[in-house]
Amino acid sequence: MNISFSGIVPPQSGALVVGAIDGGALSKTAQEVDKKCGGAISRAIKAGRFEGKSEQVLELLSPAGLGVSRVLVVGLGKPAEFSALSAEKLGALIFDRLSMSGEKQVSAAIDEIAKCPLKSEIVAAHLAAGVRSRSYRFDKYRTRLKDSDKPSLTKITLMCAKMAPAKAAFARLDHVLNGVFAARDLVNDPANDLYPAEFARRAKALGKLGLKVEVLNEAAMKKLGMGALLAVGQGSSKESQLIILHWKGAPRSKKPPLALVGKGVCFDSGGISLKPGAGMGDMKGDMGGAAAVFGAMAALAGRKAKANVIGVLACVENMPGPDAQRPGDIITSMSGQTIEVLNTDAEGRLILADAMTYVQRKHKPCAVIDLATLTGAITIALGDVHAGLFSNNDALSGQIDKAGKAVGETVWRMPMGSQYDSKIKSKFADMQNIASAAGAGSITAAQFLQRFIEKDTPWAHLDIAGVAWTGDAKPSWGSGYGVKLLDRLVADHYEE
Ligand code: BES
Ligand code: MN
Ligand code: ZN
């Protein structure tokens, strides 16, 4: 998608987008356009049900008196409620209306909206971001795609009185979207092409953004005593990899870094506790947490965030086989705590345990946030609407909640406590990897993770199993959930 910014000059071709607020009042540019086409917009509003509510669109084809091929009047809703997120949703709506229409280019002029808290240049930037986000495609495995099945729309011009600040605001959003697209690509990629070593190769390619990238192979992890992570990967012919991304955007800062940890199970068959066949293909996305951390680190480096952040991607493949771990096995984690593995399909918590011990001991972070497609139970509780948030720290939880709301990647905090913790007591080891009784599966998983948090380090766990990919697959099966949230969290609380 070619995205550019210009002053407000009436376009002579393509589609034109103008706005109207709730009640139907036209914006300044919309009024001028209406005048030029002899009042066609006002007449169309009278003839139909368009009221300027958000998500409403009025379309005029080949209006007389204008050079453009069509005019879209988009509803902005109530000005006081119009937010950056509304502008992004509007961008997505515009893309959906026009992308397959045959139209090649569109110009949008959303003027300063009276009583709206946002400046028009910020609206323009977020509108552009919404268009770009929606224009994502994952076509690399299609070899027979006809031109008529590809989007016709390739260019959008945002018209704005103050184009320089609009451009600057978009540049930042554009870097974040690069991270979102990277995360979607990783989640969408099948496990035969994206396995731990390939994940590591792609991480190394982030070096060009100024990130320092370290990769620990199985021998290195064995030396560190990462028995939990290695146990998960031992049934696979693919070598496990611990990938550490360093972003030092505040080199003179004395504050400890923020640590982000992602579950990177490139394929989760369940292992010996094999999953049923139906839907197993979705488990190529079980590295959605690692993808989110990867994308967030790319976004932070791309926009040169003035913060020090470490991203840890725990990448493995969970497979059955002669060398796979067995239910009943007792393994020793890097922390020294032993774990009885009663179900090899509860593997995410095992790899996160060692990744979290590693990052705490090596880098003494100010906080640890992990993202993981950890439990099917969280999709029962929250569906595809919110990620589950589990934390030992109210302040950190509040920050995450707020960041999520601002970018449209919302979380819902779940309870934790000793009554849940006691359900993972083991007959033979320090703990077992599944609860002894059914129920509260997402919470007992979080309790397991908390046992690997040292010295009450502020910690939050996001169970993203319900939101990392979406059924309707528009514009992408892999959602890229988490990249925008993490970027926003860092911008709000961890930058100099
Ligand atoms: N990767 C799955 C969780 C999952 C399920 C993610 C559905 C996305 C959609 C995880 O490794 C898993 O298998 N969890 C088990 C845990 C159980 C064995 C305690 C689950 O949720 O059933
Ligand atoms: Mn599993
Ligand atoms: Zn899994």
Descriptive overview:
The protein has 496 residues and is α/β, with parallel strands linked by helices. It is built from 15 helices and 17 strands. Helix 9 (288-302) links the parallel strand 9 (258-268) and strand 10. Helix 8 (227-233) runs antiparallel to helix 10 (348-363) and helix 12 (394-407) packs across helix 15 (483-493). The two termini are 33 Å apart. The model has no long low-confidence stretch (mean pLDDT 97). The chain binds ligand BES, manganese (II) ion and zinc ion.
SSE blueprint and pairings:
Blueprint: E1 2-6, E2 15-20, H1 28-36, H2 40-47, E3 57-61, E4 70-75, H3 84-98, E5 105-109, H4 120-134, E6 155-159, H5 163-188, H6 196-204, E7 212-216, H7 218-223, H8 227-233, E8 241-248, E9 258-268, H9 288-302, E10 308-318, E11 329-332, E12 338-341, H10 348-363, E13 367-372, H11 377-382, E14 387-391, H12 394-407, E15 411-413, H13 418-421, E16 431-432, H14 441-450, E17 459-463, H15 483-493
Parallel strand pairs: 1-6, 2-4, 2-5, 5-6, 9-10, 9-13, 12-16, 13-17, 14-15
Antiparallel strand pairs: 3-4, 7-8, 8-10, 11-12, 14-17
Helix pairs in contact: 3-4, 4-5, 5-9, 8-10, 9-15, 10-14, 12-15
This protein binds ligand BES, manganese (II) ion and zinc ion.
Zinc ion binds next to strand 9.
